[in-house]
Amino acid sequence: MDGLETQWYENGKLKNQTTWKNDERDGLELAWYENGRKCLEITWKNGKENGLETHWYENGQKWLERTWRGGKLDGGMKMDKSG
């Protein structure tokens, strides 16, 4: 698979967008809650996590941020469990 894959909720709102290259995730992946708020943002390179990964609670508050290099965690992680 090559190109942008897009998934939708039954209500017509955007659910997920993933970029593929040679059947591997490669590029930005975004996901949203059904209420339209962003849920996830992560970058992939050759099928491996690469760069900043961010997650949000459904209320829009950021709850997790971590960095990847070649599919391995690179450094620490920031979390906020209070969301």
Describe the structure.
- The protein is 0% helix and 66% strand.
- It is mainly β and 83 residues long.
- The model has no long low-confidence stretch (mean pLDDT 95).
- Strands 1, 2, 3, 4, 5, 6, 7 and 8 form an eight-stranded antiparallel beta sheet that branches.
- The protein starts with a strand and ends with a strand.
- The chain has one domain (12-70).
- A hairpin with a 5-residue loop joins β3 and β4.
How many E-type strands?
8
Query: How far apart lie the N and C ends?
Result: 36 Å
Report the mean per-residue pLDDT as an integer: 95
- Helical content band: under 10%
Indicate the radius of gyration in whole angstroms. Answer: 14 Å
User: Poorly predicted ranges (pLDDT <50, ≥5 residues)?
Assistant: none
Query: Helix segment count?
Result: 0
Strand content: over 45%
The main pleated sheet reads as: 8 strands, antiparallel
Layout: helices, strands, pairs:
Blueprint: E1 3-8, E2 14-21, E3 24-32, E4 38-45, E5 48-49, E6 51-56, E7 62-69, E8 72-79
Antiparallel strand pairs: 1-2, 2-3, 3-4, 4-5, 4-6, 6-7, 7-8
Protein name: Toxin-antitoxin system YwqK family antitoxin
Pfam families: MORN_2
Organism: viral metagenome
Structure keywords:
eight-stranded antiparallel beta sheet, 83 residues, flat
Task: Describe the structure concisely.
By secondary structure, the protein is mainly beta. 0% of the residues lie in helices and 66% in strands. It has no helices and eight strands.
